[in-house]
């Protein structure tokens, strides 16, 4: 429906926003693969592939995952480890550490590139471990086949919002990160900025770098490589400071970056940008 968000007087349907439904479908597709095989260009293309001047609401997780029939993003990433290793009073596992890190990055890159609005879906903000399933009996289809029900069970008929509020669980850090993302948008209003430019989508480095408004976003999806003095092109010259770090201990990270560090640009053209700066960022795998 190409006229969905065109004003009625111009022959359109007149809605202000369209749901960017291709994004959660892409994450479902990618989560069924090893993240080592993810293509940075493919991710960027899906997030930015929308009509010019058509505003979109983007989201990382949808009913296809959160409702019966699939798994939530968190459960795809961490699976059964979520049942035993999400308490802070016991050691974590590499699967949990990696899953929490990827969950935060998936949400932020979706919010950063995917549209002009961002939607959470039924516990995505803190990484709900399970799907939701309403009580239901068997359903007969016109072709004669029958979809089995769940014996009208209420077992999965709830969202565990208490998990995100529990300060003794790792879900709390994931929820804190979601709040920090919202505060970042509230302060800088990057989602409604006209300036959006992807400067790097490097398949070997597994790096995505883009500008949105006054911010420069840097993502390292590599499973083992950290980068020191990595050159990042930028439109605006001057001094840059870190305003959001997914590795912050508050968000369940390991606090390995200096938040007080200042980064100064140089007149060093890089990847079609007149200015650039050197940054440090870490690999995904702990």
Question: How does this structure look, described?
Answer:
The protein contains eight helices and twelve strands. 32% of the residues are buried. Helix 6 runs parallel beside helix 8. It has a single domain, classed as TIM Barrel (Alpha-Beta Barrel), CATH 3.20.20.80. The strands form five sheets. The chain has a three-stranded parallel sheet, with no helix packed on it. The mean pLDDT is 90. The termini are far apart. It is 26% helix and 18% strand. Strand 7 and strand 8 form a beta hairpin. With 286 residues, it is an alpha+beta fold. Pfam families: Alpha-amylase_C. One of its GO terms (molecular function) is 1,4-alpha-glucan branching enzyme activity. It comes from Eleusine coracana subsp. coracana. Keywords: Membrane, Transmembrane, Transmembrane helix. This is Alpha-amylase/branching enzyme C-terminal all beta domain-containing protein.
How would you summarize the topology of this molecule?
Layout: E1 18-19, H1 22-31, H2 40-48, E2 56-58, H3 63-66, H4 73-78, H5 81-84, H6 94-113, E3 117-118, E4 139-140, E5 146-147, H7 162-165, H8 171-188, E6 196-202, E7 207-212, E8 215-220, E9 227-234, E10 239-241, E11 262-264, E12 275-281
Parallel strand pairs: 1-2, 2-3
Antiparallel strand pairs: 4-5, 6-7, 7-8, 9-12, 10-11
Helix pairs in contact: 6-8
GO molecular function: 1,4-alpha-glucan branching enzyme activity; cation binding
Keywords: Membrane, Transmembrane, Transmembrane helix
Protein name: Alpha-amylase/branching enzyme C-terminal all beta domain-containing protein
């Amino acid at each position: 429906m190409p006229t969905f968000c065109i004003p009625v007087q111009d022959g359109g349907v007149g809605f202000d926003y369209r749901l960017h439904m291709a994004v959660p479908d892409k994450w479902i597709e990618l989560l069924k693969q090893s993240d080592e095989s993810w293509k940075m260009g493919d991710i960027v293309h899906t997030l930015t592939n929308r009509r010019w001047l058509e505003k979109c609401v983007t989201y990382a997780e949808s009913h296809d995952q959160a409702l019966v029939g699939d798994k939530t993003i968190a459960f795809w990433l961490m699976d059964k480890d979520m049942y035993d290793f999400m308490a802070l009073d016991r050691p974590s596992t590499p699967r949990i550490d990696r899953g929490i890190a990827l969950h935060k990055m998936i949400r932020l890159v979706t919010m950063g590139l995917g549209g002009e609005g961002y939607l959470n879906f039924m516990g995505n903000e803190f990484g709900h471990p399970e799907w939701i399933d309403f009580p239901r009996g068997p359903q007969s289809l016109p072709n004669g086949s029958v979809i089995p029900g769940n014996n009208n069970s209420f077992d999965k008929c709830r969202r565990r919002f208490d998990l995100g509020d529990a300060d003794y669980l790792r879900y709390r850090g994931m929820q804190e990160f979601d709040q920090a993302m919202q505060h970042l948008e509230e302060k800088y209003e990057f989602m409604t900025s006209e300036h959006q430019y992807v400067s790097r989508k490097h398949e070997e480095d597994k790096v995505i770098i883009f500008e949105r408004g006054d911010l420069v976003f840097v993502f390292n999806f590599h499973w083992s490589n950290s980068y020191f003095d990595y050159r990042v092109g930028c439109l605006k010259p001057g001094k840059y400071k870190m305003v959001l770090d997914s590795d912050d201990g508050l968000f369940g990270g390991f606090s390995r970056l200096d938040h007080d560090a200042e980064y100064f640009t140089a007149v060093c053209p890089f990847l079609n940008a007149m200015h650039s700066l050197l940054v440090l960022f870490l690999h995904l795998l702990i």
